[in-house]
């Protein structure tokens, strides 16, 4: 628990081993996501995707500079109520099992954060669900970052903080590229085989009253190898009200909420969608103004 507290307070990122998810399941996840990319998505990426078109134009025109507003990424979202890739054998069964395990792990981590922060057990989960019940959003972003012929001219995924709550990443253990901003310097997140990388989003920063900051991170485009990245998000319900936990607000500053606003998560997401790759502090200010 002390190591998790340190990871949350000092880094905003940490790698979790002994997490209770079987290596056999993780190997199946690797297999079905790789097969899905190869057989259902890779050709389309190189033939018709926006980043490939823009990069070809940039190089073909002999232009200097870098593509600034597109990521070198193939990505799709898995949620309970959307369409999943239909052709890869075992994909739905494997990813359904994996998502159920990850959701349980996220809820366990939230309880540990509650205890480390000194707030009532179940506080974060209850806040995210808008009370009792199971209304929080749990999504899984399946990304692949193909080899890039000009990795200095485009970013795999532009620098940002995550909007939501707890993010659980099963990253490639061979192809790197993930970096976090620590003390003003970009630092590699070196893969540990079989680990799950945890990071905290903007909503945990608010609920913890700034104790657990969301951290800037990015993915560099790489010249060799396809990087697989499977990020699951335990986010508040769009109707959930988010504010700093009462126990963490100093009494004399209770009305100020130590600078963090009270807001409805859906309102925050409306702003985040427009400002994802910009500093987060104006987002907090804008959502305060919207209340």
TrEMBL record:
<dbReference type="GO" id="GO:0009693">
    <property type="term" value="P:ethylene biosynthetic process"/>
</dbReference>
<dbReference type="InterPro" id="IPR005123">
    <property type="entry name" value="Oxoglu/Fe-dep_dioxygenase_dom"/>
</dbReference>
<dbReference type="InterPro" id="IPR044861">
    <property type="entry name" value="IPNS-like_FE2OG_OXY"/>
</dbReference>
<dbReference type="InterPro" id="IPR050295">
    <property type="entry name" value="Plant_2OG-oxidoreductases"/>
</dbReference>
<keyword id="KW-0847">Vitamin C</keyword>
<keyword id="KW-0266">Ethylene biosynthesis</keyword>
<dbReference type="GO" id="GO:0009815">
    <property type="term" value="F:1-aminocyclopropane-1-carboxylate oxidase activity"/>
</dbReference>
<feature type="domain" description="Fe2OG dioxygenase">
    <location>
        <begin position="136"/>
        <end position="236"/>
    </location>
</feature>
<comment type="pathway">
    <text>Alkene biosynthesis; ethylene biosynthesis via S-adenosyl-L-methionine; ethylene from S-adenosyl-L-methionine: step 2/2.</text>
</comment>
<protein>
    <recommendedName>
        <fullName>aminocyclopropanecarboxylate oxidase</fullName>
        <ecNumber>1.14.17.4</ecNumber>
    </recommendedName>
</protein>
<comment type="similarity">
    <text>Belongs to the iron/ascorbate-dependent oxidoreductase family.</text>
</comment>
<keyword id="KW-0408">Iron</keyword>
<keyword id="KW-0560">Oxidoreductase</keyword>
<dbReference type="InterPro" id="IPR027443">
    <property type="entry name" value="IPNS-like_sf"/>
</dbReference>
<keyword id="KW-0479">Metal-binding</keyword>
<dbReference type="GO" id="GO:0046872">
    <property type="term" value="F:metal ion binding"/>
</dbReference>
<dbReference type="Pfam" id="PF14226">
    <property type="entry name" value="DIOX_N"/>
</dbReference>
<dbReference type="GO" id="GO:0031418">
    <property type="term" value="F:L-ascorbic acid binding"/>
</dbReference>
<dbReference type="InterPro" id="IPR026992">
    <property type="entry name" value="DIOX_N"/>
</dbReference>
<dbReference type="Pfam" id="PF03171">
    <property type="entry name" value="2OG-FeII_Oxy"/>
</dbReference>
């Amino acid at each position: 628990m002390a190591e998790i507290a340190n990871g949350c307070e000092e880094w905003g990122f940490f790698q979790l081993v002994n997490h209770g998810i079987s290596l056999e399941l993780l190997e199946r996840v690797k297999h079905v996501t790789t097969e899905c990319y190869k057989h259902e998505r890779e050709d389309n990426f190189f033939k018709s995707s926006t980043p490939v078109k823009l990069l070809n134009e940039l190089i073909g025109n002999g232009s200097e500079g870098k593509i600034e507003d597109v990521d070198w990424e193939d990505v799709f979202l898995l949620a309970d109520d959307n369409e999943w890739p239909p052709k890869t054998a075992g994909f739905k069964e494997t990813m359904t099992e994996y998502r159920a395990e990850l959701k349980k792990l996220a809820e366990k981590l939230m309880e540990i954060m509650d205890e480390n922060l000194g707030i009532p057990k179940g506080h974060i989960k209850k806040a995210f669900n808008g009370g009792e019940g199971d209304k929080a959003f749990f999504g899984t972003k399946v990304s692949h970052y193909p080899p890039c012929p000009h990795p200095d001219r485009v970013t795999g995924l532009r620098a940002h903080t995550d909007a939501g709550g707890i993010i659980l990443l099963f990253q490639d253990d061979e192809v790197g590229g993930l970096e976090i901003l620590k003390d003003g310097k970009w630092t590699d997140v070196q893969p540990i085989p079989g680990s799950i990388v945890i990071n905290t989003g903007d909503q945990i920063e608010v609920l913890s009253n700034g104790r657990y900051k969301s951290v800037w991170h990015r993915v560099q485009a790489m010249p060799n190898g396809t990087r697989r990245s499977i990020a699951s998000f335990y986010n508040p319900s769009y109707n959930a009200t988010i504010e700093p936990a009462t126990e963490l607000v100093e009494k004399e500053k209770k009305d100020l909420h130590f600078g963090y606003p009270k807001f409805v998560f859906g309102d925050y997401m409306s702003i985040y969608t427009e400002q994802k790759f910009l500093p987060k502090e104006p987002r907090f200010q804008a959502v305060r103004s919207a209340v």
